[in-house]
Structure formats: C-alpha cells, structure tokens
Design goal:
single chain, 551 residues, alpha/beta, six-stranded mixed β-sheet
Length: 551
Amino acid sequence: MDGPRTKVELFAAIRRDSRTEKLSIHELSRRYGVHRRLVREALTSPWPAPRKPMPPRPSVIDPYKPLIDAILRADLDAPRKQRHTAKRVFDRLVDEQGMDNVSYGRVRDYIRRRKPEIWVEEGRGPPSVFIPQTHRPGEEAEVDFGDVYITLDGVRTLCYLFVFRLSFSGKAVHHVSASQGQEAFFEGHVHAFQVLGGIPRGKVRYDNLTSAVARVLGFTRARVETDRWTAFRSWAGLDAFYCQPGIDGAHEKGGVEGEVGRFRRNHLVPVPDVTTLAELNARIDEWDRQDDQRRIGERPRTVGEYFAIERPLLQPLPEDHFETGRLLTPRVDRYAQITVRQNHYSVPVRLIGRQVRVLLHASEVVVYDGRTEVARHERLVTRGGSRLDLDHYLEGLLRKPGALPGATALDQARAAGKFTPVHDAWWEAASRAHGDAAGTRALIEVLLLHRHMSHDHVVAGIAAALRAGALTSDAVALEARLAAERETPAEAGPDTALGRIASPVVSLTARRLAALPPDPRPLPSVAAYDQLLRHTRPSAGRPPSQGSPLP
C-alpha cells in the first residue's frame, strides 16, 4: 500500500497511528521518515501550517519606482491628451537617469499595475466597480447597432445589425439593413414592436447616435433630438435614456452590447451567403424564435418563459401608421434615372424631366409619380452604383432599337436572370429573319408582354415560338397564353358516349362567376303574390281544386 501522498494525508496517518497504536513521537518519526518537529506539528493540528512567503526578490526596476510614481502623480493634474505614456516614461528614464539595464516591458507592466493604485491613493476615484441591477418586467429595453459582413449576391458586403433587447427577459429582436441611417433606425423599432407585440412602458437606453441626437449638451444627460425622432417617440410613446459618450456609456447598456456579439458569433459565423437582405432577415427571425429556448447565465428559466411573463405588461402598439421612410423629391434626368444617396435608380422614360417622390427605406427605394408607385428597387449599399430596370426603357428602345445591345439595363437584366438565353436565341433568329432593327423591335414587343403576363409563361411562349419558327410577338403572346391555360385546370365538358370530355372552349362568364364569393342570401319567395290570386268557391261535397281557373 502506498504511503501518504500529500501533507494533509501524512498528518492524518500520523494522528491515526498515534491514536490507535499509541506510538511515541520517536516511533512515528521513524515509521514515516520525517523529523520529530513535523510529528509534533501533526499531533497539534490536522492542518499543516501555511508556508512562509518568500521574501520579495530585488528587481532592476526598484531604484526607478519612486521616479515613475512621481511622474504618474504629476499626470493627475495634466491635460488628458498630454499625459505620459509608458513609452514616454521609458524614454525619460533613459535620457534623464541613464537607465540602461531595464527593458521597456518591465516599465510598461509596472505602470499598468501602479497607475490605478495611485488614482485610488490620491482620492481621484474608487476602482472600477459594476453594480448588479434588477429590471422590472415590461419596463426597460436597450438598443444598439452592430457591424456585420455578409455575402450578398456573391459580393462581400458590410451591413448593420439592429438589436432591440428587453432588459427583464433578455428577449432580443434583430434586423439587418443596408445602412444605419434614420430610416433603418425607425424600421428596426417598428419590426421589434411587431415581433414583441408591444412597447416598453419605461426607459429605453440609447447611444448618442445621429439618428436620434442632434447635439450633446456638455457633460449632462440633456440632448437636442432630431425632429423626426421626436415625432417617432411621440407616436410610439417611447421614453429615451441617453448613455454617456464613450466606453462608460457602453457599460450603461451592457446587456445589448453583449447581445450584439453573442448573436454575431453564434448565428453569423460562417459569413451568411444570401441573395437578398429579405432572405437573411427571414432566417434571423427564425433564429430569434429558436433563441427563446436558451438560458442567460444561471437563470432558472428560459428567455421565452421570462418573456411570457413580460409580454402582457407591454403597452399596446399605436393604431395609426408612422412612415419610416425618408421622403425625397429628386428630378428625373435624361437617362431616366434619379440620384439617391449618390446612387442611380431607373424610372419609366415617360417621367424624364419631371420631379418624383421617393421614399428611401433601409433596404429599398420606392418611387411615386403623384400617388402612383412607378418603380421599386433594392437599395444599393455602395456609392456611385446604378440599379436599372430594363422594363423602364422599353418605350424609348422602340424608337431607338440600336441602343439595346449595349444598354446597361440589358446587362443587369442578364445578370439577374430576367433576360434569359431563350430571349437571346429568339432575338438572334428574329434579327436574321427581319433585320437588326425590325428584329430588335419585335423583341421589345415581346419584352412588353412581361408587364401583364408571368415571366415563366412568356419564356415558355418564346421557346415554343422559336421551335415553330414563328418569329413575331403575336406568336409569342399566343404561345404564352396557351402555356398559362395549360397550368389552369380545364372545365369539364358534356357527357358523351365516350365519357366526359374536356371542353376546348373556356367560358369567360363561368370563370368570372367561379371567382365570386358564395352568396349566403336565401332564395327569393313568391308567397306574397299568392294572396293576389282569386279562387272560385268549391261546390258542395267536392274538395276545392288546386288548379281552379280564374274567373
């Protein structure tokens, strides 16, 4: 059997043998091979005495410590941007004291440890301390933005993650947008309100971001807010609390600061590869629902269970609508484009020279002519880019068909998959048959079919017309309608000796009636008119006839 391995076990063995076998100190010392002083110590206490600390060894920096402390104390009253760095202290010791046997690392480590101690010794402030907080349900929330990179349609793109986090339950709502401007700030709030089903009744903590704060007034909590943010707060009933600028303000809303990093590490690694931001936000909504099952720290319940307590205590959503988009009124240039945030977007050519209304949202641009929507584009995240819709230029290309082969809108349509290889094959065949100008005009007439027919049906019609050698827009339209009819179930025809056959003729009246909702009204009655009928008197002994003629 192995002997005791630790000093505590050795003491226990000595005390056991002394108690059970009544061995002397000399015998115990010989049995365990230790000095008699150690045996006496074991019999006195079951715990070994703590080892005496080693005396501090002298260091080469010891002669310079008083000088360094004096420099750090002098910095207490110096301007913040003109205080000594560790490198400057090291250089002064070398130049003024001739120090040549101390490395920069030793000086830096001593300053890092000694500087906060001097601040406390001089009464300039206690050491950094964090005070635990208790949050009441339905009362408080925190808001922040975070940078995220995604692969958007094959391009690595910087986007912005909006986070709205309830302080009591830890329930957080996330939304990615192409910018962190005021429109994204508002849309993130509206999305969070809809997901949460209400609005916090107490304070919501914010950074001093320019979407809400126009100016910080000194070192106070007072802020000059932007007009649209004031209107939005009034609409939603929000009570804003603005944190201190800098790192101290980040500590005042540490919950959402940590939530940004947690969500980014757990759900956005590896970098998401999506086609549109709407696709990514749909994934994020699902991830938020899954996160309801997680526990924060040592809490006994999940986020979803705490949120079930908090949700009924939120104040209800406003009944009216608040327009989150920013209204702009650019003028359409001669290229049928408008400029929004240094990017170019196309509109129909009929609007050239006119002023239009634009609602700039976080992820899309919507263009109105009066109250009619005339264009909708996904917002560009770069500067100096262009997003052109080929459909907007078709009327102009009918007059200038030679401009189509080199049109930028055509290249973008090909890249987006809207102008397919089937279009190119039909265009080439029509140009060979009718000439370049006439063939291009025929193609433009085919492209106009996309305005009132499905893209897939038109492509199917182009392919069918190309196989048949019918290189006119009318043939493509006919084949596209046939493709649409094949996807629509045919109405049953009359019964014949060969069975029920499908009718080749489509009844427009039957189609319209089929689209109408069912009529719950009762059938009409003519009972009231029966009172106007005059019946002959029945003869004696004969029952009255039900079909007696009128006199």
